[in-house]
Write a structure and sequence with these properties.
- The structure holds 2 protein chains of 2 kinds.
- By secondary structure, chain A is an all-alpha fold.
- Chain A is built from 15 helices and 2 strands.
- The longest helix of chain B is centred in the N-terminal third of the chain and has 23 residues.
- Chain B is 46% helix and 19% strand.
- The chains are: A mainly alpha, B alpha/beta.
Chain lengths: 319, 402
């Protein structure tokens, strides 16, 4: 029986691979502190954001475009408190703020389904941006915030890596827990889930809170790198779209899916930026079209298909 | 007997050798200087940077290369330009500067566009000792930032100075009896607008003005008619809007439609854009706005004509000139030092005065203290009417009816 063992052999192998990969990734700043490291920071950031996005949106099929709202919130917590409180405390506050925001939104909106939820979350980042600006207008401070502290890029990179490891642990924990099981049922058929006695609303809100607080923490960790924070940039809707696209390219159904999207996506985009500085948007669009037509289930899904084919061939070949 | 080396057999290798030799001699003479540029080509700030920044990059590089290059001690070096789009994203901007510094190994990097992108990349410019001569960063934190980054230079001005100058202009009109003391003030609820409105309130009061209407509106509001209706109902003598590009146009269109007739009408960013006059034609006459230049100096006239000729675009009446001036400063500093030693170039910028299209510029504690603050459309040109020390301020006119 699988349930009796704490770890199956397959899971153990996965764990070892993950730890080795993490160790290799952690070596990056030792080898290069220049351009490759900043590319590494970008990849680590999108890995955290896309994976935590997929934690919620993968199993439930609720496409959330609210990542920028949480991310910006985290940045603003750090930006407005940096002169008063130490950075680690601000990071904790940002995480909690993200969870609270996700809770409020979740309670109010997770009853919406499909397209309504997408539109609502898209509007959310804009809504939060307006609130932040309104608060700043009425409080009479300037709306550009300066985060003038010395945190090296490699420190930010290592922090993001730790956070990524944490996200994978959570995802793995959820998958094998009752919560994960409940989520999969909800994703397949919400009515069935309700009739089986699952508290659908609670499960969804809980997951949304986890996902939201991680995005807020990511924003908080990156604030010192940006130095100057203003609403249009912190709450950029582009971020929400990129996170979704990367997760879908990789495959949102699996925990390790999004990273398969993030890495090639970040590298291809970087190549496009360097080779076609005047046609980035066009080239990106073409790349995206190719991906959607060629690998509709994401790289993860495609890989799994070939793996299944290979296994079929291996097990049933005529020797 | 046939000779092995016939002239026919010889001709191809000879040609090839000649070509290679010519090529390598050419390559030897053409020592290049690598210049990097990273600024928005897409994203929220692309509208501004494609008017004020990118055409100037093209103009500057073409002009220098046509003249044979930048003069170094070792001879003239043509510019090899490497450009990237930062998509108005600080993370992307940081990556681009890293790439320019460590992969492309460029000799110098032009300052990015806008306050946010300059400040996000300032630590990197400092780390690699690149001089960062900003042209479009406006901040009140000049002192803190210059202390922190020994290689940053500010040139466009501070928010407090902008608000103060508008009060000064209105004060002049009041003492001349052109306007009364009632001001309607509106601002866009975003970085620059909020900062300016907050700075302006006490300054206006101190100058003896009564703010009869004070409202903010969200960035990107499509309908600004309530704002103008409210302002009109307050019966002001002067109208001041701390506005951004889309609303500068929206407010002015509404003010014209609703007939908000004031003798002093001010909108902030983008009033100096050529499209502003293009859109409002004769109605633009007398409108005040942020920035300005002196379009009558020979240097500025030549610059504007060449800008139009080489890039096919008209330079704006504020930031364009400043952007080009910072490029001139960089060029003059490199030529004065005679090498691509970045520390020496930075040191030279700190202590010297430069001749630019904006007039002579020097940096006191890395800050240019002489800049244009208020301009006014007068017979089809946007003249600087107030500055912090520029000569040639044009006298202010009362705005005629729409």
């Amino acid at each position: 029986m699988i349930e009796d063992k704490f770890l199956t052999r397959r899971e153990l192998a996965g764990f070892i691979i993950a730890i080795v990969a993490l160790a290799i990734a952690a070596m990056l700043p030792v080898l290069n502190t220049g351009y490759i490291l900043s590319l590494g920071v970008t990849i680590a950031m999108y890995t955290v954001l896309s994976t935590s996005w997929a934690l919620f949106s993968g199993p439930t099929h609720y496409i959330s475009l609210a990542t920028a709202a949480f991310f910006g919130l985290g940045m603003y917590v750090v930006g407005s408190g940096i002169e008063v409180l130490p950075f680690p405390i601000l990071a904790i506050i940002a995480t909690c703020a993200g969870a609270v925001l996700a809770f409020l939104i979740g309670v109010a909106t997770l009853r919406l389904s499909g397209i309504y939820f997408v539109i609502f979350t898209l509007g959310l980042a804009e809504f939060i941006r307006q609130i932040v600006t309104w608060v700043q207008t009425t409080m009479g401070t300037s709306s550009g915030l300066y985060v003038l502290i010395n945190i090296e890029e490699k420190t930010i990179y290592w922090r993001l890596l730790c956070l990524a490891a944490f996200v994978y642990l959570i995802g793995w924990g959820i998958n094998r827990s009752r919560l994960g099981f409940a989520l999969r049922i909800i994703g397949n058929d919400e009515e069935v889930a309700k009739h089986s006695g699952i508290n659908v609303a609670l499960v969804k809100v809980l997951l949304f809170m986890i996902s939201g607080s991680i995005a807020a923490l990511t924003g908080a960790l990156l604030a010192p790198r940006w130095t100057y924070i203003e609403p249009t940039i912190a709450f950029s809707p582009m971020l929400s779209f990129l996170v979704v696209i990367m997760a879908l390219v990789g495959g949102a159904q699996r925990l390790w899916g999004p990273i398969l999207g993030v890495i090639p996506f970040a590298l291809v985009w970087d190549l496009i930026t360097a080779q076609f500085p005047n046609q980035t948007a066009l080239m990106l669009g073409i790349a995206f079209l190719l991906v959607v037509y060629a690998i509709p289930n994401g790289i993860g899904g495609q890989g799994a298909k070939y793996w299944a084919k290979f296994k079929h061939w291996r097990d049933f070949r005529v020797t | 007997m046939r000779t092995f080396l016939t002239s026919k057999r010889l001709i191809m290798p000879a040609l090839a050798f000649a070509a290679i030799a010519a090529f390598s001699v050419d390559a030897m003479a053409q020592k290049t200087i690598k210049i990097g540029a990273s600024a928005p080509k897409t994203g929220p700030l692309a509208g501004g940077s494609t008017v004020s920044f990118w055409p100037n990059v093209e103009l500057w590089v073409k002009q220098i290369n046509a003249a044979g290059g930048i003069k170094l001690k070792s001879g003239k070096a043509k510019i090899e330009l490497i450009e990237y789009d930062d998509r108005t994203n600080p993370g992307e901007a940081i990556k681009n500067i890293q790439r320019l510094a460590t992969q492309d190994k460029v000799d110098f990097i032009l300052a990015p566009y806008g306050t946010g992108l300059n400040l996000a990349t300032a630590p990197l410019f400092a780390k690699f000792n690149y001089p960062l001569i900003t042209h479009t960063a406006i901040t009140d934190k000049v002192e803190a930032l210059t202390k922190r980054y020994p290689n940053i230079f500010f040139s466009l001005g501070t928010t407090t100075a902008f608000a103060g100058s508008v009060a000064k202009v209105l004060g002049k009109m009041k003492s001349a009896g052109t306007i009364g003391n009632k001001v309607a003030m509106v601002n866009v609820a975003d970085a620059f607008g909020i900062e300016l409105a907050n700075a302006a309130r006490p300054i206006f009061k101190k100058a003896g003005f009564e703010i009869v209407y004070d409202k903010s509106y969200p960035l990107g509001s499509p309908d600004l008619s309530p704002v103008i209706r409210g302002a009109k109902a307050a019966k002001p003598d002067a109208f001041v809007a701390w506005s951004y590009p889309p609303d500068t146009f929206g407010l002015t269109a509404q003010a014209k439609v609703q007939g908000l007739d004031v003798k002093a009408y001010y909108t902030a960013v983008a009033t100096a854009f050529p499209v502003f006059a293009g859109k409002f034609g004769k109605s633009a006459e007398g409108i005040l706005g942020a920035g300005g230049i002196n379009p009558e100096t020979t240097a500025m006239k030549n610059y504007r004509a060449t800008h139009k000729k080489i890039t096919g675009k008209t330079a704006d009446y504020w930031a364009s000139g400043m952007v080009y001036a910072t490029f001139q400063i960089l060029q003059q500093a490199i030529e004065a030092v005679g090498t691509t030693d970045r520390k020496a170039v930075t040191a030279h910028i700190k202590k010297s005065t430069f001749n630019t299209v904006m007039g002579p510029i020097n940096f006191k504690n890395q800050n240019n203290e002489v800049f244009w603050t208020v301009g006014q459309w007068q017979s089809g040109k946007f003249y600087g009417v107030s500055s912090t020390g520029h000569p040639g301020e044009k006298s202010i006119k009362a705005k005629p009816k729409w």
